[in-house]
Amino acid sequence: MKAKEGAVLNQLRMDCRDSxxxxxxxTGIPLSTVFKKVKRFHEQGLVRHVCLLxxxxxxxxxxxxxxxxxxxKSEVKKALASLACLNNFYQVSGAYDxxxxxxxxxxxxxxxxxxxxxxxxxVQSVRAHFIQPVRQExxxx
Amino acid sequence: MKxxxxxxxxxxxxxxxxARVKLTKLSRATRIPVSTLFDKIRAYQVNSxxxxxxxxxxxxxxxxxxxxxxxxxxxxxxRAKLEQxxxxxxxxxxxxxxxxxxDFTAEVVFPGIREVEEFVEEVEEQVRLKAKQVFYMVEELxxxxxxxxxxxxxx
Lengths: 141, 155
Hints:
The complex is a heterodimer.
Chain A lengths: L2 H12 L5 H8 L3 H13 L3 E7 L8 E9 L2 H9 L4 E7 L5 E7 L2 H13 L3 E13 L6
Antiparallel strand pairs in A: 2-4, 2-5, 3-4
Helix pairs in contact in A: 1-2, 2-3
Chain B lengths: L5 H12 L5 H8 L3 H13 L3 E8 L8 E9 L4 H10 L3 E7 L5 E7 L2 H14 L2 E14 L13
């Protein structure tokens, strides 16, 4: 990646609601170039712009990182992917097959979901931790 | 700070789907006046409901082929130092405090697996760890998906 592209991308990583004019001003790159680069990022499927939320302030105080070992990965993948409480979901290597970052409004919802997971035939084991963000999406290109 | 209502959740779900959405487009989708949206979006940031508006990147397309979740557990007196070491490392993309016998989970981004291993060794050289565990991300199935579907904000 060229330095200019990296500079634009890093500005978007810091605050993607910034105007292209502001990004051009901060990076010293002409506005037309910034416009072309951002357009290209989209065409390449390189970026997705999201607002990161403090879920607790929205009434979802419990956030859990759940590791799952599955005997039938496709079954577990399909079952989890449709859950409304799912935030991040990865297939991982190592002692577990999946890692799911999930958000809950109360203890009951959390326990119900864990019980549901543990009762699935395709699930061999589950390990859950409560997680609290310290910092997110800070890696600079 | 006022409690958030279903209208706020609707706005936030649109911003979760595309944080660069224009206010005029958002106004059409939500039937909320642009001026109200402007005030509300500003208030979300002031009240720290929105912690950051960030572009999520497909790191593999940029040559970073190794992404991993690394869990660390340190002795009680070393936890603050561990946090500082992890915060200082430029390859730690996201950092979470965790419980259940662990202290932190670091989501790291590196060009290859060798660099991930070197990172873990570097942390170990600086902090006395009780335990560590590495999970390489094989496939990203969902990312920042919670509250990103405007039709499901009633959950």
